[in-house]
Amino acid sequence: LEVLLVAGGCCHDYAAQTRILKEGIEDRINAHVTIAYTPNKSTSATFEIYEKDDWAANYDVVIHDECSATVTDKEYVGRILKAHRDGTPAVNIHCAMHSYRWGDFKKPVEVGSDNAGWFEMVGLQSTSHGPQLPIDVAYDKEHAITKTLADWTTINEELYNNVQILPTAKAIATGKQAVKNKKKDSPEAATKIEEAVVAWTSEYGPKKTRIFSTSLGHNNDTVADGRYLDLVCRGILWTTGHLDDAGKPTPGYLHEASQP
């Protein structure tokens, strides 16, 4: 598989995470990862590759790992989305969920509205996250991507909120996080359990392009965790049609030493 990994922007160690992802993916599945990286660490980071109309032509799947929250150029974002509407699958990681947003994006967007485009591709609308604390991840044991994966608990990570799950999306993993109550005099319990969808699939556009997304992946140690890399790789295989309903990869696409 030819995989394009687009990474850069605000708030994350993308220089390290691109290396971690490339090595982790190529070690697990039969894939070659090309990196499109920018050292721009602001929320306005853009990528030269997106300036071409046929930017995704040479790739089987695109991993969006950018954090470009204040990029609102509709023509630029439109070029990105067109590639996926035309059939190029996508894997969206972490801050990709908080990119390319404008208007009153903190309220549920309406499908087809001016500010709904990126959320429609992603399949889930998220706008913020809580503190960095461990997240208990529970998988849907029926979906092909997660059927063979064991539940796990992350290190300190960010639990992204769910404003809404769009009709085209299906949740395949939930996360629970115990958050301490900041109000010392509050009659509520000392901790509150926050819960949100942390991995999901969706179909996008007239060709029902396969999309896989996970909001996990803030810290380097999480990205480097074998359990995280297994999830991402199975998402790649599913979006490209190389994972059957039983969760078994197409012969030749999963390296024999890889687990699960």
Describe, in plain words, how this protein is organized in 3D:
With 260 residues, the chain is of the alpha/beta class. The protein has five helices and eleven strands. The strands form two sheets. The chain has a nine-stranded mixed sheet. A two-stranded antiparallel ribbon has the order 5-8.
Summary tags:
two-stranded antiparallel sheet, globular, alpha/beta, 5 helices, 260 residues, nine-stranded mixed sheet
Distance between the termini: 19 Å
Net shape: globular
Low-confidence stretches: none
**What is the overall number of helices?**
5
Q: Which sequence of SSEs, written as H and E, runs from N to C?
A: EHEEHEHEEEEEEEHH
Structural class, judged by helices and strands? alpha/beta
Mean pLDDT: 95
Radius of gyration: 18 Å
Range of strand content: 25-35%
| Count of strand segments | 11
Biggest sheet: strands side by side, in what order? 2-1-3-4-11-10-9-6-7
Main β-sheet, in a few words?
9 strands, mixed
Helix percent band: 10-25%
Write a compact overview of the structure shown.
The chain is an alpha/beta fold and 260 residues long. 20% of the residues lie in helices and 32% in strands.
Describe the secondary-structure layout:
Blueprint lengths: L1 E8 L4 H15 L3 E7 L22 E7 L6 H12 L4 E4 L23 H6 L1 E2 L3 E11 L12 E9 L3 E2 L3 E12 L10 E14 L4 E6 L5 H4 L2 H14 L21
Parallel strand pairs: 1-2, 1-3, 3-4, 4-11
Antiparallel strand pairs: 5-8, 6-7, 6-9, 9-10, 10-11
